[in-house]
Amino acid sequence: MTRAVLKFLPFLIALALIPIFLPGGRLGSYYLTLLILSVSYAVAALGLTILLGYSGQVSLAQAAFFGIGAYAFAVLAAKHDVPFGLSAIAALIITTGFGFLLGLISLRLASHYLALVTIGFQIIVGLVLNNWAIVTGGADGVSNIPRPAYFGIDFSHDHYFYWLSIACLGIASYLVYRLRHSRLGGALLALREDEIAAASNGISLFWTKILAFTASATLGGLGGILYASGSMYISPNVFDFNQSVSFFAMTLVGGQESIVGTTLGAALITFLPEVLRFLHAYYIAVYGALVVIVILFMPQGLYGMLLRGIDALRHMVFRSPAEGAAVPVAAQRQHSLKRPVATNDPILQITGLRKHFGGIKAVDGVDFTICRGDIAVLIGPNGSGKTTALNVLSGVYTATAGSISFNGTDITNRRPAEINRLGITRTFQNIRLFPELTALENVVIGYYPKGTVGLLGTLFARRRGFIEDREAAARARETLRLLGFSRFDIKAKNLPYGQQRVVEIARAIVSGPELLLLDEPAAGMNREETAALSEILYRIHDLGLTILLIEHDMSFVASVATRAYVMDFGQKISEGTVAQVLSDQKVIKAYLGDDAEYA
Ligand SMILES: Nc1ncnc2c1ncn2[C@@H]1O[C@H](COP(=O)(O)OP(=O)(O)OP(=O)(O)O)[C@@H](O)[C@H]1O
User: Fold this and answer.
1) What ligand 1 atom has the least distance to the C-alpha of 429?
2) What is the pLDDT of residues 254-292, one digit of tens each?
3) Up-side HSE of residue 145: CA atoms within 13 Å toward CB?
4) What is the 3-state secondary structure (H, E, C) of 57-91?
5) What's the 199 CA to ligand 1 centre distance in angstroms?
6) Can you state the angle between helices 84-106 and 62-74, rounded to 10 degrees?
7) pTM here?
8) Among the atoms of ligand 1, which is closest to the Cα of residue 380?
9) What structural domains and CATH numbers belong to the chain?
10) According to its record, how does it sit in the membrane (predicted)?
11) Cα-Cα-Cα-Cα dihedral of 403, 405, 411, 416, to 10°?
């Protein structure tokens, strides 16, 4: 709380003081009206900060939610004399419901398809507002929208209403901040960075997308209520597609991930046309060009640029201490390097597994059993179906036929997040870290399935959320240190390849799974890094994990594996110890083809 308050309070106080400096007379009250509007826009644009900035979902329908909130409130309060508070709550519920609907649609679509659907939604809402005249008043709109009177304060006075709007903005900012710095916020960011990796780390794509859309719609609705009550009159043209583009621009120009940036963006987009009015007919063109320039050349928005400038200045004045260096695992206490002993207790049983892509039989009737305590390796020539098998195991692909049983539970064709929660985690052949997040944040997201605090807890039960977040961060640090890594605060995309692999493994084991699937963990590593990796595998194994890995590096395989399975053309062709399978004629033939006899 204190951190959020310290962050926003000075900014909100500065906003609240603005009316004191406005000129008197009609000009002053005109600017005050614009300020009230810009605060209502800022609240709605904060919805896009969640949806676009955090979760990466593109929506051009924020004006629709703004409109639904405004109209639902105005119709109830002005036409049916429902008390202000009740009308506002009902309007928020209705808007959230529409957000849920759009969220459901978004589950099947992404990027430009999703953007198109949101435009369609925006247009439908515009048409309804215009044509459902009996309820919305059609083109005439709704007038005489009330303002509240609470605690003996009559908010029909513009100054008071402005301060009420600032209070709403403060509450909205606080809630968005809390969401961002919680495990649900981590899930939103993970969704933005990489959906497959997010799902494989136990994050439900369904609920996370629904959360992003409903939270965004609720804030859109709240902005609409403030707008309707602030201007006391609404008509459909305010809530059209152009306004949705304006919300988009406010979020991008200010800085799509920044709460303060979005608020400043809203003010800028509201006031810029006024500042440019001296350009007469050309002002729209110049206004458009300025917005395009900011979006093109300042991807983090104006506020992001400002913060970077301040950061650069601070670096120049006070040189920052050197970043924590990586501690090479090999340089740490050496593990006993005792080859792990496998048991005969099956943990994973695969029976008749097939995965066909049209005519390609990538996996074609494979059976194998992994026992608790195994470090099992899946080898085979390129294109033999190993990664496909792993993808089916982890729920990334659905099986064409066959069954997979984990600890006696049938997990065939379950979703990746469910499989993760049952205790199977994985890494990917082409590392799938969340590139814009730090190493620590990546690993914290791996701990997501262990968290219990939901949305209400995140927003209102601060203590529980705080304790869980602290525990997740502690576990993430501990896991990274166990793997000899200490560059917690470096963005994943800036780490060298070998260290990215280590972070990905840490992310996969932080939640304490039973079975770890590794897809070519040694790929792209030099000899030293590969040696460190075997040490890492032993440490992980020591934690009680069973490991199944795909690997091409035979000396690495020979040094770590307790059991090996060989695939060729989608089928299992050999099974046994590494030495046994490597001397199997079928395996030699699969690798060397017709040269096998000669070899
Ligand atoms: N999504 C997909 N759509 C169509 N074909 C696919 C798909 N994924 C894999 N395949 C095909 O399935 C076969 C097996 O591929 P897979 O990646 O599983 O092999 P692999 O043994 O992991 O190879 P490598 O060792 O090179 O990674 C290949 O012919 C590949 O082209």
Assistant:
1) 27
2) 888 889 999 999 998 888 877 777 776 777 777 778 777
3) 26
4) CCCCCHHHHHHHHHHHHHHHHHHCCCCHHHHHHHH
5) 21
6) 150
7) 0.86
8) 21
9) 2-240 (no CATH), 330-595 (3.40.50.300)
10) Multi-pass membrane protein
11) -100
